Amino acid sequence: MADELVLDLQQLKEKADLTQAGDEANMRGNMVHSIAAMCKMFELFNGWQVANVATQNKLLTHTEKLQAESNHLWTEQTRAKESKGGERSASESKAISALKTYSSDRTSFKNWNDKFINAMDQLHTGTRHVMKIVREKLDVEKYDMPDSAWLEAKILVELHTQREYSLEKLEKDMYYTLVEKTEDEALVRVNAVEEGQGLKAYQRLYCWFAGTSGLALHDKLRTVMSPTAVKREEDISDAVDKWMDQVKILESHGPTCQLGPVFKTTALQLLLNNFRDQFEHMTDSIPKNMDEEGKFEMLIKKILEFATKRRLEAVHKRK
Q1: How confident is the model over 202-232, as pLDDT tens digits?
Q2: Burial 160-199 (b: 16+ CB within 10 A, else e)
Q3: Which of the 8 DSSP states describes residue 18?
Q4: Total domain count for the chain?
């Protein structure tokens, strides 16, 4: 029985030798699984037990040999990719190239920053998680962070993604991008650090343009909690989207600026003050046994569905 399995294995191996090098690792990896599947099939359906030591060793030897060859091919392919420049630099990235230049407008910094981080994450997977941790610390400390804080973020991301993350490569590409994609006052902040210090340059830029005083935060909170009531049903969707963006901006300033679902629901009630009956109908239709966060998410969904319907009806009437 073992001879038949080895013969099948050898036939598969000969077929694999005719494939290109790029396909061999996958082909031979599948062979290993095929051997295990064949053995399991005999055990389950024919009552066959691999009891003979010589038979076991014969199968194991061929399986380990193919696995070793598969690992070797994978290593060679990886080295070949790296030698050909498998990792792109910022200057070669389409995402970085498409990023618009930031011209020091404070009101547009958040949107630009989100796109900047998204582009860096395309270049270095895991950057979005790193920057989330970093921004939370910057919102508290307000200025330069020690290198240990970046290292802590790196370790947390590696644990989350189960892959190595290079701060050195991030810093190099971040500095290049910030120099190329900022101008005026923003570029002055970037150039204030030593050449190549991309992490520190980003900190300076973020703290200068995203930093908010206590008075400014109070104004943001007041805007979120006391929104102007919508007058027309077809305008509800845009008003809710704008309000949710304001909430996101407020909450980006740290844990102390997080709003609970009850407070956000109260704010929405003020936003839809001219449509009290519809609002009460939507809130009453939400199951009472849901947690507050779940109720709020369902309320948002119902409001947007209602608003979309009314907008389409308004468009139809105009035609």
Answers
A1: 988 888 887 654 556 677 788 899 999 999 9
A2: eeeeebebeebbebbbbbbebbbeeebbebbeebeeebbb
A3: T
A4: 3
Q: Lowest-pLDDT range, 36-40, 44-48, 70-74?
A: 44-48
| 73 CB-side CA count, 13 A | 19
The more confident residue out of 147 and 243 is 243
Higher-pLDDT residue of 162 and 15 is 162
Per-residue pLDDT tens over the stretch 84-118:
444 567 888 888 999 999 987 877 888 899 999 99
CA angle in degrees (0–180, nearest 5) for 117-118-122: 115
Do 41 and 110 share a structural domain? no
Amino acid 5: pLDDT: 46
Alpha helices of 90-126 — where are they, by DSSP H? 94-98, 109-123
Q: Which of 153, 196, 150 is nearest to 174 (CA)?
A: 196
pLDDT reported for residue 58: 60
Domain assignment of residue 203, given as a range: 90-209
Q: What is the mean pLDDT of the chain?
A: 76
| Structural Rg of the chain based on CA atoms | 29
6 Cα distance to chain centroid: 46
| Tokens linked to 4 | 């038949």
Alpha-carbon distance of 88 to 108, in angstroms, equals 28
- C-beta atoms surrounding 27 within 10 Å: 19
Taking CA 245 as the corner, what is the angle to CA 256 and CA 145, rounded to the nearest 5 degrees? 45
Is residue 291 domain-shared with residue 308, that is, in the same domain?
yes
* Whether residue 69 is found in the same domain as residue 150: no
Dihedral over Cα of 172, 177, 179, 185: its sign: negative
Shared domain for 252 and 184, answered yes or no, is no
Q: Which two tokens stand for residue 246?
A: 């304001």
